[in-house]
Amino acid sequence: MQVAATPDNESARLAALYELLILDTPPEERFDKIAAFAAAEFDVPIATITLVDTDRQWFKAKVGTEVCETGRDVSFCSHAILDPGIMVIPDALQDPRFADNPLVTGAPHIRFYAGAPLTLPSAARLGTLCLIDRVPRTLDALELGILGTLRDLVVLELGKQKGRQDA
Amino acid sequence: MPEPTHILLVEPEPMLRRTVVMTARSMGMSQVHEAADNAAALRMLHARTYHGAVVAVGCVGSGAERRYDLGLVDQLRASVKAGQSMPIAIMADQATAQLLNELRDRQISRVILKPFRAKVLLETIEKFGELARKP
Fold first, then answer.
1. pTM over 0.90
2. For an engineered disulfide with A61, which of A15, A31, A129, A164 has Cβ 3.0 to 4.6 Å away?
């Protein structure tokens, strides 16, 4: 298993995340609706809005899992925030970075992963809107476009969160 | 550069509507004009020419009188600006025999059934755009 590198702007990224005062807050309908829509649109068993903290990834919204957080060392989303584009892993068992990841070899038995980074205007990538399936699959161009749009809706909501903290 | 095509989307669910509009824009597809209900759609119908429409239809009446409200479809067809030949897709909860019978005379290009997916709507919009661009 390959642990994700730390982003070059990690301190600024974490500062932007903490400034939102969103970590460990209760579920909110505005985020839950986006995660639920994503799960239904892509017909995946698991969809989450994930925020990557210092040593953990925490789920602001989740469909198909009761887990609230996992370690950052096993996190797919920690890899996804290293680049601005959507990261798609068609089959985790065929990817040396993830084949022996405990989230692949054990519950929730991830095979397919797609993570769209939540990028703020400051370029800080706080986490992802991600899709998980237990069978291999791919996304076509239109599906990538839809996932990108849903990600943009999450970022818009995070922008409102920042507005609330600034007010 | 070809003239942009314009598609009318009438859909009450905000998340689905916004996802379709924003994705169509980001992917350079037809320009999608969104209406949340029939009243808004009718106002928009008078404002410009559309090359196609995707319309969610709900039911009116109750019991044995319950039927799909196709009033907007009829008004789209009767509209001078929209014209008789504009492709129209409708979104319905289920395809009843009565609905299919009523659609027969209305030249409906496609019936989209639940669960409604943004991808299906976007594929329909793309197809309508291609039809409009054909010489």
1. yes
2. A31
